[in-house]
Write a structure and sequence with these properties.
Elements (H helix, E strand, L loop, with lengths): L2 H4 L7 H7 L6 H27 L3 E12 H6 L5 E8 L3 E9 H11 L17 H21 L9 E2 L3 E2 L14 E11 L2 E10 H4 L19 H12 L5 E4 L6 H5 L16 E6 L2 E11 L2 E9 L3 H9 L1
Antiparallel strand pairs: 1-6, 2-3, 2-4, 2-5, 3-7, 6-7, 8-9, 9-10, 10-11
Helix pairs in contact: 3-6
């Protein structure tokens, strides 16, 4: 190749190549499929969630966005719970993201709080117990996809354990990103309105045909085995407790000269007051004691009701 020929060689336009290979489509075509999927979510999810949780959860279509997949996922922002999912014979790799405020509100509601009395939480990373409770929310979204798209074989979707968006690994710069679309839906419980998004490669959406769906028709069920299992799972979750005992005040000079074997007396003279907490939340007021060879604490008072304690631990 001579220099004049080399100067005429140009990199092939990535977008044009994607259109030629079916990986990038027209926004009107993508938008039509996104709207049909949004209608399926709006038709099926409220009944499913009502049957499972006993609470009215409103679902509405909020539009769609197109772009590179990693950019769409990053655009969801912080305080979002994500999951990676697949549905054989349809899409091997798609993502579902949901804002944390509505999930936090759902946890509170399942623990007995009235949704209308819950103030809107700020977006934040969710605890492992809260993530456990949120798992079925993502599974139902994937179930609607299974019912709505032309995925032959009747296979079940595979949904990974959700994780906080802040912990998602950064994209590998050596891996080429793909064009995708984000189908955005509002999800509301009580006064709290959030968004969940399903991010799917455009190459999949361009081949997708939406199957007409009918409502779940189970809105009258207010208590199900799923709800009972969630409540039991919350109550059986292991929590690390920490007991703190107040010691006598010492001068900084004395503290700096303490050596192994030195003794610091408790502040209390008789019944030693102990504060027990979990996750930084004060739970119980106890007294210090001993049972055989083990030191113990005996609960004397609590910081709130059983429901208050559960909410404190989980937040």
């Amino acid at each position: 190749m001579n220099p004049s020929t080399a100067s005429n060689v140009h990199a092939f336009d990535k977008g044009l190549l994607a259109r030629m290979t079916g990986a990038l489509g027209d926004d009107k075509v993508i938008g039509r499929t996104a709207l049909e999927l949004g209608q399926a979510f709006g038709e099926l999810l409220p009944g499913m969630y009502k049957a499972e949780t006993g609470h009215d959860i409103a679902i509405g279509y909020a539009g769609f966005k197109t772009g590179l997949r990693n950019e769409l996922i990053a655009g969801l922002g912080g305080g979002v719970l994500l999951t990676d999912a697949s549905l054989r014979n349809w899409c091997q790799d798609f993502q579902i993201g949901c804002d944390s405020p509505v999930l936090i509100t759902l946890v509170e509601a399942l623990l007995g709080a009235e949704p209308t009395s819950i103030g809107e939480p700020q977006p934040r990373s969710m605890s492992q117990i809260e993530i456990d409770v949120a798992v079925p929310i993502f599974e139902k979204i994937a179930d609607v996809l299974r019912l709505a798209v032309n995925a032959p074989g009747g296979v079940e979707p595979v949904v990974s354990r959700p994780y906080n968006s802040e912990t998602r690994p950064k994209p590998d710069p050596a891996m080429e990103d793909i064009y995708a679309a984000s189908i955005d839906m509002t999800i509301g419980l009580g006064p709290v309105l959030s968004t969940f998004s399903v991010i799917v490669p455009q190459s999949v959406l361009l081949k997708t045909q939406i199957v007409p769906v009918k409502g779940a028709g189970q809105g009258n069920k207010t208590k199900t085995e799923w709800t009972e299992q969630l409540e039991e799972q919350v109550r059986r979750s292991a929590v690390t407790l920490e007991a703190r005992v107040r010691l006598e005040s010492l001068t900084l000079d004395t503290i700096s000269r303490l050596q192994p074997g030195d003794v610091i007396p408790f502040h209390d003279g008789q019944d030693v007051r102990v504060e027990v907490n979990a996750n930084g939340r004060e739970l119980y007021v106890c007294e210090f004691g001993r049972s055989g060879a083990k030191y113990t604490v005996r609960v004397k008072d609590t910081h709130g009701s059983e429901q208050d304690i559960l909410r404190h631990i989980m937040s």
